[in-house]
Amino acid sequence: MKRFVLLLFVCTCIHQTAAQHTEIRYQELVNLFKAWRSFENPPKLDGAPDYTVQTFEKRWPEFEVLQNKLTAIDTLGWSIAQKVDWMLVWAEMNGYDFNHRILKPWQRDPAFYKTVWMSRSDVPAHEGPTHHGTLEVWTYSFPLNKTAKAKFLAELEVISTLNEQAKQNLTGNAKELWITGIRDIRQQSKNLAEIRTWETIKGERKIVSAIDKAITSTDSLVAWLEVEGKGKSGPSGIGKDNYTWYLQNVHLVPLTWNDEVQVLKRELARAWSALKLEEHQNRKLPKLDPAATPEEFNKMTKKAAKQLLQFLEEEEIVTVKDYFEPALNVHLGRFVPKEKRNFFEIGRHFDPRPLYSHFYHWFELARMDNEPHQSEIRKGPLLYNIFDSRNEGVATAVEEMFLDAGLYENDPRVREIVYIMIAQRAARGLGSLYAHANEMTMKEAGGIHSEYTPRGWMKTEKELLIFEQHLYLRQPGYGTSYITGKYLLEAAMADFARVKELRNEPFVLKDFFDQLNAIGNVPISLGHWQMTGVDDQVRQITHVKN
């Protein structure tokens, strides 16, 4: 008996020592993550982030040291959650490497130098490559207090300096990125002019002066870009091989360029056929009438938001937190005259619930604000839009999942809108794939986007078409992430259910979504692994031993 007690004591001590050792090694990862994030934020040049070639080359050896430290960390015995955190840091470092070697937005992409952002993105960070000195107007409360005023003024002053640096750094030959990117810089000038007219700004002499200087500088950059753009002739896509490497090693999507083409073609055909079957089934029902007045629109949107939240709670889809309702209500939208409605506004004016389902985005951002993840690595937005398969994929997937769960049981015509939205996402993503392969121009990719969207809903307002195809050319993998992320989420749900069945445990939809939410805004492949223990996708995209 004494021998058994002694053996038990020794085993317990060994277990505790091993656990402590694991925690120490995991803390090494957290410390390295902090050092990495500090490094990733570039030094300043005359008060603005420094993206000059000389600085990148000078700092490269320091980056290699960080990479080597990461690969030297022993993850043996780590939990899946800890290994997921390791892979997130690995993916971010791969993103820096890829930007340095291939994407080079500071050289190829004029839109990279957009500084003024008027509104918050509906995903954890801005869509597409963004510089480190942005002015996030939406984060300020006006009129500005003394502290905010000083910060606002300092961020305004970055614009002129960075614009001048842009003229030195932008040496690329990506014609479509260059020409279309001028729109973003021109819009910045308009936004600054708008801010200048605000009653809370008019009397602020220093701020008005800084705005005037920023407008002059921005207009000068636009003029320079227009002159330089006449000599641009090169492709803007990164090519199939680079696209696949980026997809797998940075965004952790277990697919190739060719795989994504097949997934999107399949989803496009499925959405069209499902739409036609819905239309057939609904042929004897009256068609939907869009809101014709602001009063009708406001009444409809409030009712739709309430119906969606009640559905999620009463049907036990997901745990509805107190912050869901205010997060959604801020984004109900406003009435838009028929002739000015773009694709999403057309659908919203018929019935907003399909779009509000996609606004699962805002629940996720509210969760980040109110219940930040306990992991230091997952707490904030991942760099380089690594979150796209998670945030865009889930937002797209739940449109149809909520349909299948019964959201439109009493309104079958609304189901048609869901399939139109899926078809549009598949068409625009397919176009972006061909653009990145340099098999199509951005305009030709937009042709697929427009022509393969049902009912001509992408032909009513061209600005959205240009905005989306430009973004997807700037950010590889983003245009497809809505559909491929949806596909990956469905695979995760399938394995989640299969594992439950093997264990003779019930599948509970609410548990699935709650666990997904608790994991945070990480790529679906990693969420799949952590929720199910199934690591097939992870093994497809990395040689790291799990």
Tell me about this structure.
By secondary structure, the protein is mostly helical. 67% of the residues lie in helices and 1% in strands. It has 23 helices and four strands. It has helices at 2-40, 53-72, 80-103, 105-108, 146-169, 175-197, 199-202, 205-229, 240-249, 257-281, 294-314, 324-329, 343-350, 353-358, 360-370, 388-404, 412-436, 442-451, 462-474, 478-502, 509-519, 524-532, 536-541; strands at residues 44-45, 48-49, 116-117, 135-136. The strands form two sheets. The chain has a two-stranded antiparallel ribbon. Strands 3-4 form a two-stranded parallel sheet. A hairpin with a 2-residue loop joins strand 1 and strand 2. Helix 17 (412-436) runs antiparallel to helix 18 (442-451) and helix 17 packs across helix 19 (462-474). The longest helix is centred in the first third of the chain and has 39 residues, at 2-40. The chain is globular, with a radius of gyration of 25 Å. The two termini are 39 Å apart. Residues 7-11 have low confidence and may be disordered.
Query: DSSP helix count?
Result: 23
Integer average pLDDT: 95
**Per the principal axes of the C-alpha atoms, what is the gross shape?**
globular
Which class do the helix and strand fractions yield? mainly alpha
Rounded to the nearest angstrom, the distance between the terminal CA atoms is: 39 Å
Q: What gyration radius follows from the Cα positions, in whole Å?
A: 25 Å
- Uncertain ranges: 7-11
Number of separate strands: 4
